[in-house]
Write a structure and sequence with these properties.
three-stranded antiparallel beta sheet, Virus Head Decoration Protein, Chain: A, mainly beta, 11 strands
Length: 142
């Protein structure tokens, strides 16, 4: 789950190609996971990097892993670039307000200051989303 809380007109959306050979992005199938770019294709991160962005495409609404048909057909994912506030359930452990967040190897955010991409602005809280309860944090992406 990835919900933008800022004005979308202030952000840049960029479509990145994904590869069947590097199909970890296609297999990840979760909106809000963070990807990096290897010069030709988007791929999930293997270590903390500032060269990463969250996937903005919609994933399965029932909470299972998978993308809407447009991602699988176009072999592209849309990432967001810019400064904005968002809610996400794509994080490890339980970061606290003010924590810097790195991108972990699984494409989720984790507390760390090696290569921060965001800060926590609101602690983890339960949210009802499409009939299921998930824990989300609010973040500021810079």
């Amino acid at each position: 789950m990835f919900k933008i809380l800022s004005d979308l007109s202030l952000l840049l959306r960029k479509d990145l190609d994904v590869s069947d050979a590097l199909n970890d992005v296609l297999l990840s199938g979760v909106s809000g996971t963070w990807v990096t770019y290897n010069g030709a294709y988007a791929k999930r991160t293997s270590a903390a990097t500032k060269f990463a962005w969250p996937v903005f495409n919609e994933s399965n609404r029932n909470g299972t892993v998978g993308w809407t048909p447009d991602v699988n057909n176009s072999k592209k994912v849309t990432v967001l670039v810019g400064k904005y506030f968002a809610q996400t359930d794509q994080f490890n452990s339980t970061p606290s307000v003010g924590d810097a967040l790195d991108v972990a190897a699984n494409g989720k955010l984790a507390a760390g200051s090696t290569a921060p991409v965001a800060y926590v602005t609101k602690a983890s809280t339960a949210l009802s989303y499409f009939g299921r309860t998930i824990n989300v944090i609010e973040i500021y992406v810079f």
